[in-house]
Structures are given as C-alpha cells and as structure tokens.
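[09:14] KT: can someone run the structure on this one? pasting the chain below
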Amino acid sequence: MADPQSRIAISTWSLHRLLGATYPHDLTTDAVSDGEDTYGEGEESLLGLPSILANHGYRRLEIVSFHLRSRDPVYLGELRDQLQVAGVTLQTLLIDAGDMSDPLDGARDTRWIAGWLEVANELGAENARIIAGKQPFTAENLDRSVQGFRHLLSANAGAPLRLVTENWFDLLATPEAVHRLLDRLDGQVGLLADFGNWTGPDKYAGLKSIFSRAELCHAKADFKGGRMDEADYGLCVAAAEEAGYEGPYTLIFDADHTHEWSGLAEERDFILSRLA
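[09:31] RB: done, structure tokens below
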C-alpha cells in the first residue's frame, strides 16, 4: 500500500447513526434477529453505503456483523454487487460477538463464528476479525482460544479469507498475551491492532510492540468536547509507523456529536499528514 490514500478505510461502526438499525446477535441460532433502531431511524441502508463511501473518496470498508440485516445468499450477493459497482473493497467482516475462551459456551460460540466465516466468504471479504476471548488470561483460557482458532482455520481451509484477531477484551489485554496467542497459531491468524482498546502509561509502548505484527488497524481518535486529542492520536500513529506497520488505517469515529463525515475527514487528514 504505497499510496497513502489507499491506506485509509472506514468501518460501518463509524456511521452507525447514518445506518440507524442494528441486528443484535443471538448466539444460540444462526438466524439474524429483527432489526432495532438502535441509533435512530437512520438515513441510509447498508446496500446504499458503498456508493456513498465512494462519493466521499473512501475505497475500503469494514462491516460490523450486526449491521447485516440478512444472511440470505441473495441479499449478500446484492451487497457484494454494490461494493463491486462502487469500486469499494470489503476489507474486513468484523464478527462482533462470541467467546471461544468461555469454559461453558466456547464450543457453541466457535461454531457460531464459523457460520459467519461463510458470510464473509460470500461477501468477498479479505479478512474476518474474530474475538479471541473475553475471559481473563490464563493458560486454560488461552488453550480454549487456540483450539477455537484451529477449528475455524480448518473450517475456512482453501478459502482466500484471512482470519485475524484484535487486542480486545480480557484475554488479549496485554502485549504479552497477544504475542503468546499469535505465536501458538504460527502465523495462520493475523492481527488487527486497535488504538482505542488500551489505556494507561504503557499504552504506546504496548501498541508499538504489537504493531510489529499487525496487518490491520482500527485508528480511533478520542474526541473531547468536539475536539480531537491530537497528542494521543499522533503518538498512536507514531507507534504504528515506528514499528514498521504498512497496512490500512480504518477510521473509527465514536464521538458524542453527530458530524460523522467531518470527524472522519479530520482523522483521515491527520493520518495522511503523518504519512506524507
């Protein structure tokens, strides 16, 4: 990705107000639940989003699984067609539920996640992001997560879809835990590193450590009082670049004010200024 512009992507989470509806997950079934106007009525459907993104100059998209209103092959085909027509690459399907490290429901959740890998493949996604686990980091919980990933890798064998995980929730709350999981999986699972999931005085050193292995990034800025915290955002971008990160930056806008497009443009322009 030599062209800095090609290193910018958008997540549907950043446009949750524009979309309005979500389809909450029930891990006991593969069916998609009835929609809820979680963020209001919304102004646009997911099918219409690719052309809108292209009109704003964005060519890479990540879709959160709870934004899909159906897993019907016809609907998925329509969405894939809209992405192709707009010239927008589906970078990642973010599978936003499940806990493979859970001692009671881990096997069930792993099977549920495997079903979403089929959706990601039908959509032509490059990657599928999977939660490694929500349980505290222990040897037993790590083992369950590793076993879950191995099951998913077997289920996805032969497909071009790349499986990745994220420095998110309790199991991967430290750089050491991230490295241990990835080492156990021998490079078969990639890493999506998120700016916003860690806090504290060791945040930037921790990010720099894991960005040495990252293939994707959630570039979330902190907006307070409507203003972006440029100091924090700059240190996050620097941690990634100094670690040799060369992948895309997926803009995550999650502020109280409703100006999504201007907030995303501010994040994009800041990152591009650092990559220039």
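[09:33] KT: thanks! The chain has one domain: 4-275.
[09:34] RB: yep, looked fine to me
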